C-alpha cells in the first residue's frame, strides 16, 4: 500500500511550451503544482525556432484567432520575463520580399484593408535590405518575432522550483490511479493531472489523433546583421551573438526516422539561397517532431470517463502563439467552469476514435 506523503492541486506531465505555459498560469493563481518532465534533446519545444507571425501560409492570410492570440502572447511572455528576471521574447519585424509587380500591387491594396492594417508595418516597392534578393521590394510585418524556447523553458523551470515542485524523471502511467475526485501517482495525490506530452502517448489519451510531423532546421554563419526575420519559402532568423542564423523548417509526414537528413539540409540551403545573396554554409542541423492534429487545432479537455485526467496537446506548427492563450482558456475551464471553445475541445474526436473499455 502506498503512503501518501504530499498533496498538490495539479500534476503536469511534460514541460515543453504547453506544460510551461500552463505551469505559469497555475502558479499565477496560487495553485500548488508538481511538474514531471524528462527533458529530451529533440523535443519539439527545444528544437523550435520559436517564431510567431500573424500572417502566414502560402497565401499569406491572417492566422486563426490572431486578434486574441497575439496580444495574449506578448503580455504573457513579457510577464514571464519579469517574474523570472530573464530574457526570452524578441519582437522583430518579418520581411517578405515580393516576387513580382503583381504581388507588390496586391499588397499595396491589402495594406489599407482593416483585416491587415494591425499587422502591416510597411510595403516597400523597391529593394530595402542589402544581402536580400528583393528587386521588387517587400512586405514588412509587425507583431512578429521569436521566442528563445530554451531560455523560456529554463526560466519557467526556475520558477516552478521556487514555487512548486519539478521532477526531471520519466512519468510512468502504470503508477497513476484515478481516486475519488482526484488522482494518485505513487506517493503523491492531486486534484487533477494534465498531460502535456507532445508526441508521447499515455494510456489514457492514446485514442487522440496526435500525429508527429517531422521538422528540421539548420544554422549558418552569416554576414547579415539586420534585426529582421526574412521569410520566403523558408524563414531566416536574426543572427545570435555568435553571428549564427537559424533557417527552417521542413515539414515531412512520411519521414519517421529520428535523425537529421541530407535531403532536408539541401532543401533548406537551396531555399535560403533563393532569398539571400551570400553563400549558405551550414554549421549546425537539428530535427524534432511537432505534435499535430488532423484539423490543425489544439486538443484540450477531460478524459471521457475520468474527469480528473486532462489533456493539453496538438499545438502543431504554432505552439509559441497558441500556448499562452489556450493555457489561459484551459485554466479558466478547470477553475471557473468557463466552457471550452468547440474547435479545441477533444469532444470533437470522441465519436470518431474513443472506445470505452467497458
Ligand atoms: C523543427 C521545428 C521547428 C518549429 N518551429 C516553430 C516555430 O517557429 N514557431 C512555433 O510556434 N512552433 C514551432 N514548432 C512547433 C512547436 O515546437 C510545437 O508546437 C510545441 O513545441 C509543442 O510543445 P508541447 O509542449 O506540446 O510538446 P513538446 O515540446 O514535445 O513537450 C513535451 C514534453 O513532455 C515530455 N514528456 C513526454 N512524455 C513524458 C513522460 N512519460 N515522462 C516525462 N516527460 C515526458 C517531453 O520530454 C517534453 O519535454 C517547431 C517544431 C519543430 C519540430
From TrEMBL:
Keywords: Oxidoreductase
GO CC terms in record: cytoplasm
InterPro entries: FAD-dep_OxRdtase, FAD/NAD-bd_sf
Occurrences of domain FAD dependent oxidoreductase (ranges): 9-332
Claim: Nucleus is one of the keywords in the record: no
Signal peptide: none
Protein name: FAD dependent oxidoreductase domain-containing protein
Organism: Pseudochryseolinea flava
Amino acid at each position: 500500500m502506498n503512503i501518501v506523503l504530499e498533496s498538490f492541486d495539479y500534476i503536469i506531465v511534460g514541460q515543453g511550451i504547453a506544460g510551461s505555459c500552463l505551469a505559469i498560469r497555475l502558479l499565477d493563481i496560487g495553485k500548488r503544482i508538481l511538474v514531471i518532465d524528462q527533458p529530451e534533446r529533440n523535443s519539439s519545444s527545444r528544437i523550435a525556432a520559436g517564431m510567431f507571425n500573424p500572417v502566414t501560409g502560402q497565401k499569406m492570410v491572417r492566422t486563426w484567432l490572431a486578434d486574441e492570440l497575439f496580444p495574449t502572447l506578448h503580455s504573457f511572455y513579457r510577464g514571464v520575463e519579469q517574474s523570472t528576471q530573464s530574457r526570452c521574447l524578441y519582437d522583430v519585424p518579418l520581411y517578405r520580399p515580393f516576387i513580382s509587380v503583381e504581388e507588390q500591387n496586391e499588397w499595396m491594396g491589402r495594406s489599407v484593408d482593416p483585416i491587415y492594417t494591425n499587422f502591416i508595418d510597411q510595403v516597400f516597392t523597391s529593394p530595402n535590405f542589402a544581402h536580400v534578393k528583393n528587386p521588387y521590394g517587400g512586405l514588412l510585418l509587425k507583431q512578429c518575432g521569436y521566442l528563445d524556447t530554451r531560455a523560456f523553458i529554463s526560466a519557467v523551470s526556475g520558477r516552478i522550483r521556487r514555487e512548486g515542485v519539478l521532477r526531471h524523471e520519466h512519468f510512468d502511467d502504470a503508477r497513476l490511479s484515478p481516486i475519488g475526485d482526484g488522482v494518485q501517482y505513487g506517493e503523491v495525490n492531486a486534484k487533477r493531472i494534465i498531460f502535456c506530452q507532445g508526441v508521447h502517448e499515455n494510456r489514457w489519451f492514446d485514442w487522440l489523433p496526435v500525429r508527429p510531423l517531422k521538422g528540421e532546421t539548420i544554422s549558418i554563419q552569416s554576414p547579415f546583421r539586420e534585426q529582421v526575420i526574412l521569410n520566403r519559402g523558408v524563414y531566416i532568423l536574426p543572427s545570435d551573438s555568435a553571428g549564427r542564423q537559424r533557417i527552417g523548417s521542413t515539414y515531412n509526414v512520411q519521414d519517421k526516422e529520428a535523425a537529421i537528413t541530407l535531403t532536408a539540409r539541401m532543401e533548406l540551403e537551396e531555399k535560403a539561397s533563393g532569398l539571400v545573396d551570400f553563400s549558405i554554409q551550414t554549421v549546425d542541423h537539428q530535427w524534432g517532431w511537432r505534435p499535430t492534429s488532423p484539423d490543425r487545432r489544439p486538443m484540450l479537455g477531460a478524459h471521457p470517463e475520468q474527469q480528473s485526467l486532462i489533456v493539453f496537446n496538438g499545438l502543431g506548427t504554432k505552439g509559441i502563439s497558441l500556448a499562452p492563450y489556450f493555457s489561459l482558456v484551459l485554466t479558466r475551464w478547470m477553475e471557473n467552469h468557463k466552457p471550452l471553445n468547440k474547435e479545441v475541445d477533444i469532444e470533437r474526436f470522441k465519436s470518431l476514435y474513443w472506445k470505452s473499455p467497458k
